[in-house]
Structure formats: structure tokens, C-alpha cells
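Here is one such protein, fold included:

. . .
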Amino acid sequence: MKEEQVILVDPNDEPIGTMGKMEAHEKALLHRAFSVFVMNQKGETMLQQRAAHKYHSPLLWTNTCCSHQRVGESNIEAGKRRLQEEMGFKTDLKELFSFTYKAAFDNGLTEHEFDHVMIGEFEGNPEINPDEVAAWKWMKPSDVKKDIEANPDQYTEWFKIIFEKFYSHITLNNTQDEG
């Protein structure tokens, strides 16, 4: 199987080439990525626990899904594709904001991403892909915030960074969680 390619970008998210995912993470090169947050009508966010065999951050909790866009694929198309692959459902997505972050891991890999954060709505239970996801749960964003503060080692590094921005966005825009 051919290794997945990531889109290398400049600080303005302009593509400058492609590279194998592992090499980009080994070299800590800036590349395009996305993070999806799915919420229900109760204002809860769906979290996933990464599968035990993932090459980094196994069994840690994170946002509903995240990955990398493919060449020629829009952010929304990529988010919908990966949501179906990981969580087994489809929903409309809307892009909220984007930002750049860098997070190093114990195994020598580094996520250096220009991340496009999206939100969608879904009611019901996902049909998780066990190759990607160990478990899932619904949580109110205010409870996620408290749990990250109490148990930071149970969450992915990127989720802790992204969640702060997501929480600020939904709080400032008065969407979903009321506390």
C-alpha cells in the first residue's frame, strides 16, 4: 500500500509540494490538516479514543476525527471522507477557523499543521472503524475542558491545543454548550 501523502504548505496555507506522511512528521514540516468536531442537539461533542495500535497517541481521547487533505480535495470533502472512514457516518460540515500549531511526540515525530477546524451535527451512535477508533463518547464542552485540566495525559497533544480554540469559538459565538 502506498504511503499517504500530505500537502506541504507555507504559513499562508499555499501548497508548496507533497511528501509522505511519516517523512513530513519526522522532519516537522508544515502541512495541511483538518479537525472535525461533531455535536448533537444537547450541545455535546463526540470524542473518539484512538485505537491501541496507532503509531502515536494510542488510546488517547481526541476530537471526533482528524486527518490530512488529499491533493485536489477541499477541506469539507476531506472532513466528510474521514468522518465516514473513522466514525461510519456522514453529516454536513462547516469550517469554523484555521490556525497553525506544532506538537512533538515521545517517538520523535512532530505534528506541524495548518489545521482547518470544522463542525457538524449528528444524532445517534457512530459505527466506529476499530482500525482507527477504540471507543467514543458524548461530552459537554465545559466538561471536556474540566477533564483536560484534571487529566491532561488522557488527551492527544493536538486536541488540547485545538480544543482551547474551539471552546473559545463556541463560547464567543454562543453556539451549543451553555455550561
Notes: The CA atoms of residues 28 and 110 lie 5 Å apart.
